[in-house]
Structure prediction request, 1526 residues.
Amino acid sequence: MAKTMMMIDGNEAAAYIAHKTNEVCAIYPITPSSPMGELADEWSARGQANIWGTIPHVIEMQSEGGAAGAVHGSLQTGALTTTFTASQGLLLMIPNMYKIAGELTSTVFHIAARTVATHALSIFGDHSDVMAARQCGWAMLAAGSVQEVMDFALIAQASTLKARVPFVHFFDGFRTSHEVQKIERVEEEVIRAMIDDDLVRAHRARGLTPDHPIIRGTAQNPDVFFQAREAANPYYEAVPGIVQAAMDKFGEMTGRQYKLFEYIGAPDAEVVLVSMGSSTQTIEDTVEYLTAQGVKVGAIKARLYRPFFGEAFINALPATCKTVVALDRTKEPGATGEPLYLDMVTALMEHYAERPEPFARIPRIIGGRYGLSSKEFTPAMVKAVIENAQSAKPKNHFTVGIKDDITHTSLEFDPAFSIESDKVFRGKFYGLGSDGTVGANKNSIKIIGTETDDYAQGYFVYDSKKSGSMTVSHLRFGPEPIRACYLVNAPNFVACHQATFLNQYDMLSDAVEGSTFLLNTTTSADKAWDMLPRKVQDTILAKKIKYYVVDAYEVAAKHGMGRRINTVMQTCFFALCGVLEKDAAIEAIKKSIKKTYGKKGDAIVAQNFAVVDDALSGLHEVKVPDKAAGDVEMRPAVSKKAPIFVQEVLAPMMSQCGDTIPTSALPADGTFPTATTQWEKRNIALEVPIWDPDVCIQCGKCAMVCPHACIRIKAYDPKHLDGAPDSFLSMDTKGGNFYPGNKYTIQVAPEDCTGCTLCVEVCPAKNKSQPRLKAINMEPHDQVVERERVNYDFFLSLPEVDRTTVRMDQVKTSQLLRPLFEYSGACAGCGETPYLKLLTQLFGDRTAIANATGCSSIYGGNLPTTPYAQDGNGRGPAWSNSLFEDNAEFGLGYRLAYDKRGEYAQELVKALAPKIGDDLATAILEADQSEEIGIIQQRERVAALIEKLKGVDDPKARELETEAEMLVKKSVWIVGGDGWAFDIGYGGLDHVLASGRDVNVLVLNTEVYSNTGGQSSKATPRAAVAKFAYGGKQVPRKDLGMIAMSYGGIYVASIAMGANDLQTVKAFLEAESYPGPSLIIAYSHCIAHGFDLKYGIQQQKAAVDSGYLPLYRFDPRKAEAGENPLHMDSRAPKIKFEDYAYNETRYKMLTKSNPAEAKRLMELAQHDIEVRRAMYEQLAADGPAKGGATPTGQGN
Amino acid sequence: MMNMATKYLGLDLEHPLVAGAGPLAYEIDSIKRLEEGGAAAIVLHSLFEEQLVHDQYALNHFLHYGRESFAESLSYFPEHEEFHLGPEEYLRHIQAAKEAVKVPVIASLNGDSIGGWTRFASLMEQAGADGIELNIYYIPTDPTRSGAEIENMYVEITREVASSVNIPVAVKIGSQFTAPVHFINRLHEAGAAGIVMFNRFYQPDIDIEELEVRPHLMLSNSSDLHVPLRWIAIAYGHVKADLAATSGVHHAADVLRYLMAGATVVQMTSCLLKYGAGHVQHLLDEVKTWMTEKEYTSVAQLRGSLSQLHCPNPEGFERANYMKTLQSYR
Prediction:
């Protein structure tokens, strides 16, 4: 059989088999498993059939719970069915998994194993999710490499059909799911041979059908349940044999023979490590290295974890074994050990109780934890584990890979220990997210993997920011199979695609002697030495590193590619690494370009070809002098003014040194300070906006739309200008009632701005002589940053506006309020964050936010820093994220707590009234907190109360001291995206909205799952392309606002800041003031819409002008006053839907891939708009609503 | 029997009234209506090479924008297997038009690169177009480029395209050339079988409230006829290329004027948008009626009769005309 080698990642490997061996796939996106479902959907959409020649049906559900239900139903009715998931998704499937196993149903779930959220969410890999499902009665098969993923996916599928026990097939999230490896494809004839059609037919025959009616899913009573449960035992006992048989059959056909527990290493090993997943690869390499040096060590790759077949495990151990080490990639606090450890202990003890053979004495078993949340697991750590096991008193229940200075579980290891062969190329590439570095490196490694006999591996690391993010690509290739499942840590090639990283990250610290350093810089080769920080120069000299520069920007710009330097850098990489002859390399790159871009048009291909041909003209070797020179130093991550915690904990994270932080430095319960983005000066903008007071009309729109709170406005007494920098700009306030006699300044935060230009686009004022200039104009960052940094520091020292003087219901005045959401890592030009910023301006000092998982929880709460800030009194939003699916309920919990605690505080005030004074007590209890002034006065009363309580000798006074702040209004905001509100959290949202409680729900509606990469939600409009809406969404979007309005007692607003900023402000104020549930659906443009976000405001306006997005406010208070509660804030359509829609790639791309379908869907979408608009107009025109629920009005 | 037969670009037409490039050619149904309405030939709307290239760049840019930057969202769109980013749709349209009507179908090409022009022209020929109208839509905003350089560019494009196809090629030009007749002959020598006079470039307008320049799109009216009329009249007899008149044809008299000036055919677009496809037949009937009343027997008899070459007062087309106009104004 001819071998086909391919370069793919683990997700694709799993999806490949799953799609070929199933008929139905029900999924829900969750990182890092999403690509499996997306690929299955794409393949089906393109008409790719399974091995029976029929195209699998793929459906996206509203949650993993829903997906599991659909899978269960499909299995019960006889279709071969699968799903893909991870982490919380797997947890949501557990109830159905019990049922599926209990009913002895053949299926395989493919899991990209990921951390389960505990003290924090993590998208990265460990086994905490699959271990949380180990009790469901499923077989569990662990793959450790991309090749094993493909192989085990098939072995699992073959086995489940035979065994009737369902299988969890899992592999490490990101490390394996996203690692690109050269593997041998499992050919269709192998798949056909492995899948027994008789068993498939038997599976179908077990399906429910009225033609042969049976009943399954009965309720059983104490008389029989137990026995029936035990009746399944033979099926589980048979599983190990079935799996091994499948492995053997597979081995015969492919030459890749696997075992349930596979031993590697010295035949006379005294120490044996046992693990699952990708760690087995690293351990194998290390064991091989050490045994060659005479170390008596071995390892067992545990493949079939459930059912845990102790006999196979014992048989795999060499008789010489003295110590067995269980390595678990999970943590179970309070347990006597982690799962693999416990299973091994049980197996060994049970074995030894029967007979001691083959061991002279029972081996000692120790267990340890490693690799939580994709923590690195390297040969150095493996060596440390072995040395611990060899020691006289080894640590049990150890950890490795961290520094535990609290409970001292951690093993010391030598980070410099490396086992990598000189034959292996090891490259690290530092790029900017937007410059195409990762794409180019994926491409390069695929070229090497397919055009040469070398084995190749690519792994890619991203940071936690969505704008200006740094990526690091780790590439290896060489003549032997690559099993190094850890980051490149001894590179012989380092490329820096963004020169500004030089001063921030010590990129050459781990480079080996004689390695190559390639820098993209606009600095010429003759000056390229002097520009390097001294530390970098010293490293280059000490390690004799060859130093090359290229001005990739110049080459890219010359060929119209802007800042996308990927092709230039890729060509230079090939030229320097020498893996292919120059001409062969260029030909291979061009072939790859043709493959990648061919379908996107000849012009793109020609453009990239031209860049390839021109790339090497700018590549120069830098003559390295004998000694370091110049005075450039590495830039500290944060200012010395930063708080200690920021300096000692957050700063190392910013510098990519978070791995060095010990346990004692980290909060054990996940509690972190807010207001920390202010210390992370990222300087990512190429241009920043500069104010021109001569043109400004003081409308405030620029500050309003700024997604990152980098445009600030203050009005202040002129006396405060004393000591202002010469370059600081100000003007007199304009407008009779607008702070007369004051000075007015609009100031940019130059080091925090992302350069999105939304502020410039929205500015309505034009320079009269040169109308292309506005009152705010972009200028080169490097030319203004020093000046504006000083100006911004002075600006921040100016007094904040007195909140009691501010008219909140105007854009102009509201923007004088200090934002308490600033400098987030959201995408440049984000459409969501301006709403959050406004929320914090209006109510931030009294707001608690419950945030659904998604974009807003990532830019809101992803370490190292948080954008939620504090005012001068130390008040600001309190924020937390529970899960994706439960956010409404989580936020309602806030309300319940505040209400109860407030009520208790009031009871205490009443009880203590004689001691604290009746006047104060009455004033507190009867306070009107509906306006800003009322809240401020209540805070003053509470301060007075706390002062008085100090002198009151009464236990109730002590109680009231802790609860007194609950007497001040707390505003609860439940925030999330459409994926949460329309889909996974809808049931809970509906319940919370119907509760009548005083909560405010803000739905940041981007109409797709933005955070996980643009999957369709029920907010996705008809005709738009999204993942799982490959051929364009076929049905209209859900009208969440209309559903909520039907209750009658819920305040509902549909807003779009870009179309009507005043209505946006009013909606927030009305929602917050409404003493019941409020729902704001905020249209948010998004990078997933596929247009230049600087036109976000225009697009929002176009969405409204087309009638697609009706703006309205539904206020039940109006109904109580006898008026129609629904007020339309947008007018009749002025443009066609397509005039708005076709500015966005999500709609436009279908016109290029399927023009006829695009036309059909566009006509239907236009019709949807007309029907919906007519309905709204009728409702708004009708008389006042009758009846309707009345909110409870509970709360402060 | 009135002989209206006309030969344009070597194509035999029943009469000289042709549907010019415009939106009515977007749909096959309306192309059929143009034929039913009497058009002797139909020029399709333009294939814009720039638009195609722009669409490619834009699609590529936005499909890649933001990719591979953040671990959870390594892409934002599904990978469609193929995109129709080339001229395939337009080429299919030519084929469909050819199948739908019997009159000649002339494809229109608007581009800005030699490679694009020739490749697309060849594809248009393969798709069945009876001829090609090159619309060289070039606004010379670059102050460093001379008139001669720009004329050479026109000639070069014409030569490249004409030599790449075996069907006739007409070139649509603007009116602002220093020596139009000389230039027409250069284009003819380069391979242009006909010259379409003139392209009515959309003229920008200034919005004094918003302080912005706005595109200004207006349908033509009869007053737009005079510039092409003059240059057709001057060129007639001095050039071998067929002359197609376009701009400002709304009435039968407009058609007659152009024919008398020397136009081989008269293209109409704005009036068809305004009055519908049937307006061709309406004008044709009126032209025929007028010719009958005036005892003309063929359109050949009419053509060029009032060109500068044949008219009784040739100075009317020269500078003196300007002087007289001014005097009459006073």
